[in-house]
Amino acid sequence: MTGIKDVAERAGLSVATVSRALSGKGNVSPTSRERARAAAAELGFVLSYHASSLASGRTHNVGLVVPSVHRWFFSAVIEGASAALLEAGYDLTLYNIGENPAHRQSVFSDFLLRKRVDAVIAVSLELSEDEIEQLHAVHRPIVGIGGPLPGASTIRIDDSGIALKATNHLLGLGHTKIAHITGHEAYDQDFHLPGTRRSGFEKAMNDAGCPVRPEWIVSADFTIEGAYAAARQLLASAPERPTAVFAASDEMAIGTILAARDFGLRIPDDLSVMGIDGHDLGNVLGLTTIDQDAKGQGALAVRTLLGAINNGLVLEPADTEHPTKLVVRTSTAVPKPGTS
Amino acid sequence: MTGIKDVAERAGLSVATVSRALSGKGNVSPTSRERARAAAAELGFVLSYHASSLASGRTHNVGLVVPSVHRWFFSAVIEGASAALLEAGYDLTLYNIGENPAHRQSVFSDFLLRKRVDAVIAVSLELSEDEIEQLHAVHRPIVGIGGPLPGASTIRIDDSGIALKATNHLLGLGHTKIAHITGHEAYDQDFHLPGTRRSGFEKAMNDAGCPVRPEWIVSADFTIEGAYAAARQLLASAPERPTAVFAASDEMAIGTILAARDFGLRIPDDLSVMGIDGHDLGNVLGLTTIDQDAKGQGALAVRTLLGAINNGLVLEPADTEHPTKLVVRTSTAVPKPGTS
DNA sequence: CTCACAACTGCAAGCGCTTCCACACACTAC
DNA sequence: GTAGTGTGTGGAAGCGCTTGCAGTTGTGAG
């Protein structure tokens, strides 16, 4: 393999100068810089990643920890982060925790701590303060997306406000019999999202003087499949059907739409459905939703981290609220006369 | 930071012995091994990734290149590969090429070649022979999934045979008026999949003596959205409607189902639909499909690569055919009397 | 009892870069 | 003139490990 030494030789410069020329740091005369570049290009030389990481302590690599790669939100965050990192010349090391708790443990202790990454993005992942402490101890900035991360910076949306806004959209159309599909409690422990959205829903209902009917609040696991099952139950068992469903995620809204189809319910005539996310399928299904720009959140996380790395400053724990946008499509409408 | 030196000191051993004890390579007495382990544990010591990579030339890191993270097949491959790698103590560096051709270029030249990875998995990605040559030159085994990769090992399914099988399922039910949703030609250049599946479809039709009607072959981009649009066109414009649709992927089959809904067509009564993949949503939608176990393909790629790395042997270019399975659900049925 | 050989251990030489430091040189300022 | 500043350069010391080599000890065979 050609090393920086070969380049130096060919360019008639010292290794030190070539290193500076190629990295852009330090003072190098334009002539030398050009010569170094030319020599490197001619030899097809590429810096050894590990050698420069070892010497400089910078890895040019960001770790992204996600609970799953299948759910839309996570894919979108990955996509946004990936593009931003590629642009900046950074690698993205993906840690897909999955269901296996042992994986979570090993990701943390064996991987993140091995100085492999300059920074960590944790998506909907609860790290203990202890773990964050450890990460801080090795000077690795962290940002969390989609959930509180004690002691770390986070990017999040106003979950409660968003749910309020969504519910108000339904109420504004004239619905009063509104059901809510929330996340399982288990998820709540980790990132509190279901509870927060649910409370926004309840607040809107209360403010409007509409009763919140416990049998119309069902929970699922945030997947289409899970919500499909939950919605079937909701639509089948209720003595009286709601005229609208507000799902805590687009995937769960989609599951609801599919379930409604099984009951011969037309959307929005018989049932209005809305979600939260901005899922790609929303367009096809005409899903009314609140777009939370997950891709943008991923990109923002990267920018935040890169900024911190480059300025060498410790990332102050800060909460950045990402903007959201109500997108009205055809899955919500005024309830049929006589049903509300 | 605590280094291996600290561990050695604490354990009363030399750095060399600790290194051997921790890595499991070379001969170390059980006593020393235990002492090294204990000292490492007490100090919370973790090997520096870059230092050991630099010294050993092994990165314990595999690069996975995908065209997108949103499409089901790619997510599934990522999931399978990720779990297998985590299990083996390897990192996964994800390169999401996306639409941007510049990204593709930089991923290849700047990233893959920087000795960051021990091996490369390329999913549905066409590398030129030249590029593969370069990768081989740095002794990086490659395996391709879902498309031919000249000079590299590949894992693939029998695309033509699978399409034949799928079409025969439809024919066996009594359908003769069968449409096909294929991939765009542009995809064909890269990994030939649409063309191969299409030819399997045509062969089955010809063998059965059924005419292949050009207006019943439409193409889309493998996404739900894309196929939705294509299927709408198919179902709207044809002077006569097909009784069954065979889509080249589950996502396109799902798009078709959604489109059919818009026309008031019931499935499978008015229209049978089947796909290829084994998409998670298949269950909910009752989609008949041919399961190609994408997760398994990802895991297999990892096992193949790890085997090659550990045995130090060059990976012989070989074509592994992954098994597939017809899964009959409720989206396909005997055509309505009088329609076939 | 000697020798061959295996098992174990430590020394030290790298792995391929980055960066501190010293030095040379060209300026401007007094 | 000297001192002070800034720029450009190379030497060389690491970064924190792995591993070849050589040395020590223990074992069974001859």
Structure in words:
The structure is a homodimer of 340-residue chains. With 340 residues, the first copy, chain A, is α/β, with parallel strands linked by helices. Chain A folds into three domains: 4-47, no CATH class; 59-157 and 294-322, Response regulator (Rossmann fold, 3-Layer(aba) Sandwich); 159-292, Rossmann fold (3-Layer(aba) Sandwich), CATH 3.40.50. Helices cover 47% and strands 16% of the residues of chain A. Chain A has 14 helices and twelve strands. Chain A has helices spanning 4-11, 15-23, 30-43, 49-56, 72-87, 101-111, 129-137, 159-173, 185-191, 193-207, 224-237, 250-262, 282-285, 294-311; strands at 61-66, 91-96, 119-123, 142-145, 153-156, 178-183, 217-220, 244-247, 272-277, 288-291, 319-321, 325-327. Chain A has a six-stranded parallel β-sheet with strand order 2-1-3-4-5-11, sandwiched between helices. In chain A, α1 (4-11) packs across α2 (15-23) and α11 (224-237) packs across α12 (250-262). The longest helix of chain A is centred in the C-terminal third of the chain and has 18 residues, at 294-311. Chain A is elongated and about 90 Å long. The termini of chain A are far apart. The model of chain A has no long low-confidence stretch (mean pLDDT 90). At the A-B interface, α4, α5, β2, α6 and α11 of A face α4, α5, β2, α6 and α11 of B.
